[in-house]
Design a protein that fits this description.
471 residues; two-stranded antiparallel ribbon; 2% strand; elongated; disordered N terminus
Length: 471
Amino acid sequence: MKIKTLLVMALAAAVPAIACAKKPKKADPVKQEEVKAAEPDEIPTITEECVVNVSLFHESVKNKQYADAYEPWWEVYTTCPNANKSIYSDGAKIVEALYQATSDPAEKERLAKLAVEMNDKRIKYFGDDKKYPTAYILGEKGLAYVDFYGDTKLAEARECLQQSAAGMGPNSKIMVLVKLVDVSYALYKQDPNGRAEQFIADYELASNLLAEQASAQNNKNAEIAAKQKDYVDNIFAISGAADCSKLDEIYAAVVQGNLTNLDMLQKIAKLYRRVRCTESDVYFAACEAAHKLQPTDESAAGCASMAAKKGDYEQAVAYYDQAIKLAMVEDEMEDVADYQYNAAFYCYNNLKKYPEARKYAENSISTLEGIGQKKGQGRCYIIIGMAYASTQLFENDNKGRILNKTVYWVAVDQFKKAKQVDPSVEAQANEFINSYSKYFPTKEERFDLPNEFSGSTYHVGGWINRDTTIR
């Protein structure tokens, strides 16, 4: 009983080194036979020799003496694989080092098989570990398939990596997520028709988890996750699977078969938005069905796009009104500003409702100011300027024609404001300034105005109702 107690204490103490340990007999690793897995109800006995060997190989691995580590490691791995988790963490390093060091094809094949199979044994004895559970170990197995078998066992690698990512979620190992996309892409290239949906699903899973890791506070690997997300996004972008017609082929039937499955509909709609396929009828169908089940700002915006494509701009604006309210509830103010701008655009460009266009544009500007963001304000000022420039306030007689030209002053005021607050629209604003400045009232025409002197304040009436400067 005392011996068993001492063994347990030794293992719990992270395998301390034992200087007087008896060294095991040397064996040729090439000639060693593969050990059969123990039966499910068999629990190998942890002997004193096991504890000694764990200490020996662990110290050797710490010193990167992998050849010396192999013999005691093999003894433990084959006789008491339940002795300590380091059997598997150190074992991976030992096998990798020996694999790189040998040129014998038979030995390489044996080590590759061992690298994969040791993960199955680790799951058997340590799969319930809280920090490194079965899902984590499956990721290690998938990486072993990739490292030791290259592209010869892609399907096996993908299965392990996908299960690991799904099981570990945001705690997934970054390299598992990256390799999941790499492997799934390689399978897709082999069979574009049969593997497209799988590749898209794997990409979505990995990209979303990397995004979550990149935005997580206090995550020391956030920067790495962000860079790897860019990498997998680029892989997806060049894959061809993101082609809108290809997505439609895959998801048209999926949407029709899941009209009451909110989670599926939202995932499909999100994918279409990510790859900018928002003019697709499949995207519209997913948004419309999702909106009926549980309205969100995203589903409302999708329905707005659908209505606009059909030419129903009144309905499009109504949907954007819903999107604005729903996004405000979620405090997604940048999205609120986008929806307000889109409503402004349809009111100006398609419905010719210029006062409404200004209202939505000014609301978008106010929203952006509230979150301290200037980019995006410029396009709103341009919408207002265009609405002014498109307005005729008076009859088109001689005097009315002159008075109608005064709207170009307030229009140019808006274009100047646009490039002042948002340099990204400077080129467009300058183009409009140059175009509409040509239509200012001439010096002779200004004699018919209440105050004709340059630099004087002039009030443009009607719905515009704004002061400007005569020039």
